[in-house]
Specification:
The structure is a single chain. The protein has 4 helices and 4 strands. With about 160 residues, the protein is an alpha/beta fold. Helices cover about 35% and strands about 15% of the residues.
Length: about 160
């Protein structure tokens, strides 16, 4: 409903984000929605990191965070990869952060080539419909990258 939760969160904590060591929002969405059947490319593992469009305010900061996550994640879980895409992705909670000039990106399945509107956020959206292998690999990648950043481990 128009990202009401993320908007309220940003409004409540925006000053704390600027006062502290806030690297940015890493929004996770649709990490287990991965199929060959619906995928236009007919392959598994089409994962993306969406950030602001190149040349727009904040793109460089979004990309810096995305590249760090990508580099660290690739070292930890090379069986999956997230393509970095600057396309002004407006389908998730990252928008609330961008509206306040905060660094944000969304890590997700490929919205352009592998999206199932019949299942996403509907009554047919069950854990049994997820690709558990992709889901597991995505969380290895993301969790490992975030833990590496948190503990100061670099490439």
């Amino acid at each position: 409903l128009g990202f009401l939760g993320s908007r309220a969160f940003v409004n409540k904590y925006k000053n704390e984000f600027t006062d502290k060591n806030f690297l940015g929002l890493i929004n996770l969405d649709r990490l287990g929605y991965d199929s060959k059947f619906l995928d236009k490319e007919k392959k598994y593992g089409n994962m993306k990191m969406y950030l602001r469009r190149k040349g727009s305010d904040g793109h460089i900061h979004d990309k810096r965070l995305a590249q760090k996550i990508s580099d660290l994640g690739d070292n930890i879980s090379p069986s999956i990869h997230f393509e970095i895409v600057g396309n002004q992705f407006k389908n998730s909670d990252n928008v609330s952060f961008w509206n306040e000039d905060l660094v944000a990106l969304t890590m997700t399945g490929d919205w352009e080539n592998d999206f199932d509107p019949k299942r996403y956020h509907t009554s047919d959206d069950f854990v049994e419909t997820l690709n558990i292998n992709t889901f597991y690999r995505a969380f290895q990648f993301i969790g490992g990258a975030v833990m590496s950043m948190a503990f100061g481990i670099s490439r």
